[in-house]
Amino acid sequence: MLIARLSRISATLFVSMVMAMVMLVVLWFYAADWLSWVQDGADLIEDLIASIPLEPRYNNFVRLFASDDKIVLLIFTVIARILLALVGSTFTALTGGNDRYKVKEPGLISQVSSMMATLFLSFVVAIIMLAVISIAAEGLLQSLLDAADWVEDQLARLPIGGRWRAGVRFAVSDDKIVLLFFTIIARLLIAIVATGFTRAVGGKPEIVAPKAKAQA
Question: Residue 179 above 60 pLDDT?
Answer without folding.
Answer: yes
